TrEMBL record:
<feature type="domain" description="NAD-dependent epimerase/dehydratase">
    <location>
        <begin position="3"/>
        <end position="215"/>
    </location>
</feature>
<dbReference type="InterPro" id="IPR036291">
    <property type="entry name" value="NAD(P)-bd_dom_sf"/>
</dbReference>
<dbReference type="GO" id="GO:0005737">
    <property type="term" value="C:cytoplasm"/>
</dbReference>
<dbReference type="InterPro" id="IPR051783">
    <property type="entry name" value="NAD(P)-dependent_oxidoreduct"/>
</dbReference>
<feature type="region of interest" description="Disordered">
    <location>
        <begin position="115"/>
        <end position="136"/>
    </location>
</feature>
<protein>
    <submittedName>
        <fullName>Nucleoside-diphosphate-sugar epimerase</fullName>
    </submittedName>
</protein>
<dbReference type="Pfam" id="PF01370">
    <property type="entry name" value="Epimerase"/>
</dbReference>
<dbReference type="GO" id="GO:0004029">
    <property type="term" value="F:aldehyde dehydrogenase (NAD+) activity"/>
</dbReference>
<dbReference type="InterPro" id="IPR001509">
    <property type="entry name" value="Epimerase_deHydtase"/>
</dbReference>
Length: 293
């Protein structure tokens, strides 16, 4: 399959590109810069120059390929407004890609987040939030999945809050960055809230499986660790960096503070049973042992 991918140089995207190439697919990847194009081409992909806001370029990429994986997202998380702009840009991009595939029967796999359900681990059948700070992502993904009735094999892979590789990435990576900046390995609340996680290389396998065989209109959970307590995550961070570990106000984490404070475990039992996906790489707490002091 010839696959068009956006976000192909990120933590998840670079792993997905390698996974696709290693399994006989070819890749056309959106490249925002000459540097990104060189990285993609050195990995064995073909680069298509353009930005996520270039909807005509996105449509062209989708039209040239047998399937699409949409991973790109803005990099500015400094304020709620910046996050909202990134979500709006991502939503427009996903809509353009989906519309290009109407009537073709071709697959498109989009990324979203695992929902939080009070009192239990969320499952693949739980709805995504369509209001609140990330509600726009939920609405965009739901609209894409609805294209299953219009001849698009649209699916969604829901990612946990931490996608990690070599001790970096996701919410846990943000805790590491905050600890380096402030001199404290901090966590919001009492630290018992749980965050699900997955290694980027395991997530990449699931994106490939969804692209190859997932039925139209379905959602899947890329969850390896159902939920590690945030205090346990911070404890490893503090030990690796030689810093004190303690509770800090959730406001310390800016627009992500309220989300950091949530208990949000997630299950992937259905995904594993239905698609045969089995994570094999290090769990989050073990992977955090790779943090460099």
């Amino acid at each position: 399959m010839h696959v068009f991918i956006t976000g192909g140089t990120g933590t998840i995207g670079s792993a997905v590109v390698s996974e696709l190439l290693d399994n006989g697919h070819t890749v056309l990847a959106l490249a925002r810069s000459d540097g990104s194009a060189r990285i993609l081409e050195s990995a064995g992909a073909k680069a298509l120059r353009g930005d996520l806001a270039d909807l005509d370029v996105l449509r062209s990429g989708a039209a040239q390929c047998d399937g699409v994986i949409s991973l790109a997202f803005g990099r500015d998380y400094s304020s709620p407004g910046a996050v909202a702009r990134s979500i709006a840009q991502e939503s427009a991009a996903v809509a353009a890609l989906g519309q290009e595939l109407i009537g073709t029967g071709r697959p498109i796999v989009a990324v979203s987040g695992t929902p939080a359900v009070p009192g239990r681990a969320s499952t693949e059948t739980d709805p995504l939030p369509t209001d609140g700070p990330v509600g726009g992502r939920g609405r965009a993904v739901n609209t894409l999945l609805d294209l299953a009735s219009s001849g698009v094999r649209s699916t969604a892979v829901r990612m946990p809050r931490t996608v990690h590789n070599d001790g970096r990435g996701g919410f846990a990576g943000m805790l590491v960055d905050a600890a380096r900046r402030t001199g404290v390995a901090g966590y919001p609340g009492d630290g018992t809230q749980r965050w699900p996680a997955v290694h980027a290389l395991d997530a990449a396998v699931l994106f490939r499986l969804a692209l190859e065989s997932a039925p139209a209109g379905t959602a899947w959970h890329a969850v390896a660790d159902e939920g590690d307590a945030v205090r346990d995550i911070a404890t490893v961070v503090g030990r690796r960096l030689g810093l004190p570990v303690r509770e800090v106000p959730e406001e310390s984490f800016g627009p992500f503070g309220p989300i950091f404070a949530m208990d949000q475990p997630a299950s992937s039992a259905h995904t594993r049973n239905a698609l045969g996906w089995q994570p094999t790489h290090a769990g989050l707490l073990d992977d955090l042992e790779n943090i460099r002091p």
